[in-house]
Amino acid sequence: MKLKFTKASVDKLPPSKKGRAWHNDSELPGFRVAVSTSGRKYFYVRLRSGGRADRQERSVAIGAFGVLTVDQARERAKDLLSRHQLGIPTEPAPERQESHAEEGKSFAALCDGFLAEKVGKKKAKTIREYRRLIERELKPAFGERPGSLLASEDVAAWHARLGQRAPIVANNALRLMRTIYGWAHNRRHVAETVHPTRGIEKFPEHPKERFLSHAEIARLGAALQRRDASADGQSGPSAAIRFLLLSGWRKNEALSLRWDAIDWAREQVSLVDSKTGPCVRQLSGKALDMLRQIPRIHGSPWVFPGADHAQHLVCIKRQWNAIRAECGFTDVRLHDLRHTFASIGLEQGLSLEHIGRLLGHKSTRSTQRYAHLSEGAVRHAANSTADFITRMMSGRHLEAA
Predict the structure, then answer these.
(1) CA 181 to centroid of chain Cα atoms
(2) Is residue 101 scored above 60 in pLDDT?
(3) SS3 33
């Protein structure tokens, strides 16, 4: 579609229904405007070379409408067309070419390149979360736009809109966007002066601190006992839930537990792949007693095997939802069992150092503080916490009260 580009005419161009819609200036051949589905408008110049048989063409990004005026963009297009006709390179000068070589690369292409390089270097769960945020939030907002032309005011407006309905998602997407641009700077895909996320404040985040009360632990223990004789048995999701409460482990750490990782004599488990990397985790006697009651499946290395015994349990959400509904605390997440373990440990007078060691926390400061703790002290911490939880699960503490 051809029209005379003016501020008014470009301003009236409607959003594209699919992909990018291209519009050509009627006065300067090759001067173009691309309109995205979100209504964003960008100036380009089309450069052609060769004859009819071997004609080649490419589009060079000039800038965003609103950042550049129509007259400014037209002058830049004229300059690029003249240089192209005279055989003068239209790419950046040699001293700038390395850092600006791909400044026309779309933001979607930056995202795809980032993901492709991170696969195999990051955990599969992390890659899945990256991909989810990119496909659901980042690409729909900015995918068609040149990565080097994103303005911080546009990113700030997007972050504000998304934060009105999902502030945590907005913050996570913004963090990922910053990571992508850091990667793009290192790979010379965009200039190091391009920082579209700079200065944007994140929404306040209030982490959930839910943990079970003594009475709720007793209700959970009763619900699990009722399931012990069911088809679920001692080797299914119910056993995994019981183990989570007695150990304070993360869900994936527990579900992927292998029999050969357990050192029964030292009451320890060697985890090859935890959130914080390989580690040795102390277990309580009560947790180990519970594990001893789980029947082993011939040929399966997993403590909690899935329907296909060659694989471990992956999801126990459906069973957990049923149990917590039965217990009457539907706002409790599986991860809150970990919080519960820590809170009971604090009630029992255990130090933060002991609890951090049991939970597998890892930081420079924490590691230094944990270094002086003996295995015996950590074993006592595990036993003390799990013993108290066991009494509450059986309801004996209520009778004593």
Answers:
(1) 16
(2) no
(3) strand
